[in-house]
UniProtKB/TrEMBL annotation:
Protein's UniProt keywords contain Methyltransferase: yes
Name of this chain's protein: L-histidine N(Alpha)-methyltransferase
SUPFAM superfamilies, alphabetized: S-adenosyl-L-methionine-dependent methyltransferases
Phylogenetic placement of the source organism: Bacteria, Pseudomonadati, Bacteroidota, Cytophagia, Cytophagales
Domain of life the protein comes from: Bacteria
Class of enzymatic activity (EC top level): transferase
InterPro entries assigned to the protein according to its UniProt record, in alphabetical order: EgtD, EgtD_Methyltrsf_superfamily, MeTrfase_dom, MeTrfase_EgtD-like, SAM-dependent_MTases_sf
Histidine-specific methyltransferase SAM-dependent domain: residues covered: 28-333
UniProt keyword annotations, A-Z: Methyltransferase, Transferase
EC numbers: 2.1.1.44
GO biological process terms on file: methylation
GO molecular function, one term: L-histidine N(alpha)-methyltransferase activity
Gene name of the encoded protein: egtD
Length: 336
């Protein structure tokens, strides 16, 4: 097969500056709604500003954070079978949702390139820094790779891809990012992905599996306190971007795993009664002593749950790849 050699703009930014004020207004509205809600809540979507993304990189290197290592093993051990599946039907667009540093995807990219597969790599991420770094690292590490990075949220990027890229598509959704959606949202999101695909297109999704609750809890409560800093950064971000006066030391990171629901929930708990003023919202918010803000859910799945969720979204299961210990699964689905 021949490699496609079109010259592409290396980076497309769908979040350009003119959206800056809208993004800030959305953030301020989200904070007003979440801190007025009983019980208080904020979305983990807002974890990933510059400092938050850097902290997440550190989390992925922690000894306690097993998902990255387990998925790395799944992809390394099965790269040949996965690449054979992806490249079985000629040219395709490989769309990597939430690509970040693409550490695991690069294993597949190298394998695909060795097989001289015909494809174009389209990493998508909300962080422009991450996409710029990824573009330059791809040029050094995988010369000749046909790629174009897209900066944007999942929805805008899927729309852009539908309008600008025709032909077979394979979506990668690695790193158990699906776990950060509540169950109903994950169904809605997978249906949205499906609506941007044609029958015969594929989805390769990485999902963290249920396991010893202590192992899970440790992964979100690491000894070095990096996950605590990651969670607390949300309050720093509100201070920086919305003119908040959170005393961040007045809050603690508190993660707890529910083994019946298979969900890790993280909270920020106020150590004392306090009021916080946030300029961009024009309001103060009251916290009772030990009142908590729910900031993140990380769902862990069983294999039957994964199959049911994805089949309910218009896909059929093709193959499940797992690491030796059964910690993590990467699953290929076909759009029907
Ligand atoms: C991005 N996401 C899949 C991570 C997770 O495991 O839920 C985010 C994270 N939160 C705390 N540690 C890592």
């Amino acid at each position: 097969m021949e490699l496609k050699t079109t010259t592409l703009d290396p980076l497309i930014n769908l979040t350009r500056k003119e959206n800056g004020n809208k993004d800030l207004t959305d953030f301020a509205n989200h904070v007003t709604a979440g801190l007025s809600h009983t019980p208080k809540k904020l979305s983990s979507r807002y974890f990933y500003d510059g400092p938050g993304s850097a902290l997440f990189q550190q989390i992925m290197e922690l000894p306690e954070y097993y998902p990255t290592r387990c998925e790395y093993e799944v992809i390394t051990e099965n790269k040949s079978a996965i690449a054979a599946h992806l490249a079985s039907e000629g040219f395709f667009h490989l769309i990597d949702l939430g690509a970040g540093d693409a550490l695991k995807t690069k294993i597949l990219l190298k394998e695909l390139q060795e097989r001289r597969a015909a494809f174009e790599y389209l990493p998508v991420d909300i962080s422009e820094d991450a996409m710029q770094q990824l573009s330059s690292s791809l040029e050094k590490e995988i010369p000749g790779l046909n790629h174009q990075a897209v900066v944007g949220d999942y929805n805008d990027s899927l729309e852009w891809l539908q309008q600008n890229k025709s032909g077979r598509k394979v979506i990668l959704f690695l790193g158990s990012n699906i776990g950060n959606f509540e169950h109903e949202e994950s169904l809605g999101f997978l249906r949205k992905i499906r609506s941007h695909l044609e029958p015969g297109d594929s989805l390769l999704m990485g999902i963290d599996l249920r396991k010893d609750p202590d192992t899970i809890l440790r992964a979100y409560n690491d000894f070095a306190g990096v996950t605590a800093a990651f969670n607390l950064n949300l309050l720093h971000r509100i201070n920086r971007e919305l003119g908040g006066n959170f005393d961040v030391n007045g809050f603690i990171h508190y993660p707890i795993y529910n083994p019946q629901e298979g969900v890790m929930r993280s909270y920020l708990v106020s150590k004392q009664e306090q009021d916080v003023y946030i300029q961009a919202t024009g309001r103060s918010f009251h916290f009772n002593a030990w009142e908590a803000i729910h900031t993140e859910s990380s769902y862990k799945y069983t294999l039957p749950q994964i199959q049911a969720m994805v089949e309910a979204s218009g896909f059929t299961l093709e193959t499940i790849f797992q690491d030796k210990e059964g910690c993590f699964a990467d699953v290929i689905f076909h759009a029907v």
